[in-house]
Amino acid sequence: AIHIEPKSIRILTRGGHDWTHRFPAIAAAARDLGLTTAILDGEAVVLDEQGRSDFGALQHSLGGRGGKRISTESILYAFDLLYLDGHDLTRTELSLRRHLLEGLIPENADGALRLSEELQFDGEALLDYACHHGLEGVIAKHRDRPYRSGRLGDWLKIKCVQSESFMIVGYEQSATTRGGLGSLLLAGRKAHDWIYVGSVGTGFNRKEAEELRRTLDRLKTNKPVVPVKGKRLVFAQPTLIAEIEFRGWTNEGNLRHPSYKGLREVQDNAAVFNMTNAPSTAK
Predict the structure, then answer these.
(1) Residue 87 to residues 8, 10, 37, 96: CA-CA distances in angstroms?
(2) pLDDT of residue 65
(3) Is 2.40.50.140 the CATH number for 162-282?
(4) What does the angle CA 135 – CA 255 – CA 175 come to, to the nearest 5 degrees?
(5) Do the Cβ atoms of 119 and 143 come closer than 8 Å?
(6) Domain regions of the chain by residue span
(7) What SS3 state is found at 214?
(8) DSSP for residue 247
(9) For the chain, where are the alpha helices, taking DSSP H only?
């Protein structure tokens, strides 16, 4: 959120951290609004060449997880107005807050502070359109509701989910999680080679984890098919194929937010995701 105060601008993360210094262009654009006091809710993004928000690019611009880099590429899409010139707007309905916000940021603004687009449209059709065009999903909101922090049913984030098959090429041991298996190492295929696409540590219960570990231990090999380094890694012959849901690709070529959905019954290498079909940044 952007907090505009008489003598300062503050950009706070969802966790309450002050990241004003990391988003100088957004702070400058907020200052240029010429407001005395205001709180704008929104999301900082970095856009790809097609104008889509790119989470991997945002992370890279900030120096990765734990990084401290200043992001010069980020812009903020404002979608709500919580406070304006001494007036608390959180108890007013969204339609009014949105109307006031539209009076502050031009609809066609193309700087570091922009207005998120609002569409009153058939939700299912809009989601289909978003997913078809490679977007992350849509946000649905009740226009007659006041502002309440947190996920309380006033709004929904509906994501597009991708699902593909990947080869399990090993696992990471764990002394504390399900059945001693922390995560599965995954690979896609490219011609006759295997390409590492990251690991998945969610989606399986303790019983499934124990069964996976026992099976992979029988397939253990000292010759990993992907060049992955790390502690407590156990490599396996490429035999088991897992169905994985995920939200996209990182710039490093790894799956973003993967979740294990089960093993494919047909052990067919042709079913494994072909990396030539991955986004160019993931190949």
Answers:
(1) 18, 18, 9, 13
(2) 46
(3) yes
(4) 140
(5) no
(6) 2-116, 162-282
(7) helix
(8) S
(9) 24-31, 55-61, 94-102, 123-132, 206-218
pLDDT digit string, tens, across residues 23-44: 999 999 999 999 999 999 999 9
Class level of CATH domain 2-116: alpha beta
Q: Write the single-letter amino acid at 227.
A: P
User: Residue 28 to residues 24, 32, 91: CA-CA distances in angstroms?
Assistant: 6, 6, 29
- Positions of the chain with pLDDT under 70: 64-67, 151, 177-179, 265-270, 280-283
Tokens 């003598």 — which residue? Answer: 7
The string over 158-197, giving b where at least 16 C-beta atoms fall within 10 Å of a residue's C-beta and e elsewhere, is bbbebebbbbbbbbbebeeebbbbbbbbbbbbeeeebbbb
**Whether this model's pTM surpasses 0.90:** no
Torsion over CA: 13, 18, 23, 29 (sign):
positive
Q: Which two tokens stand for residue 87?
A: 């007036």
pLDDT of 231 reads 85
Query: Strand 233-235 relative to strand 87-88: parallel, antiparallel, unpaired?
Result: unpaired
**pLDDT value for 78:** 96
Between CA 260 and CA 170 the distance in angstroms is 14
∠ CA 253-132-189, nearest 5°, is 30
CA dist 226 and 188 (Å) reads 10
Q: What's the token pair of residue 92?
A: 């007013």
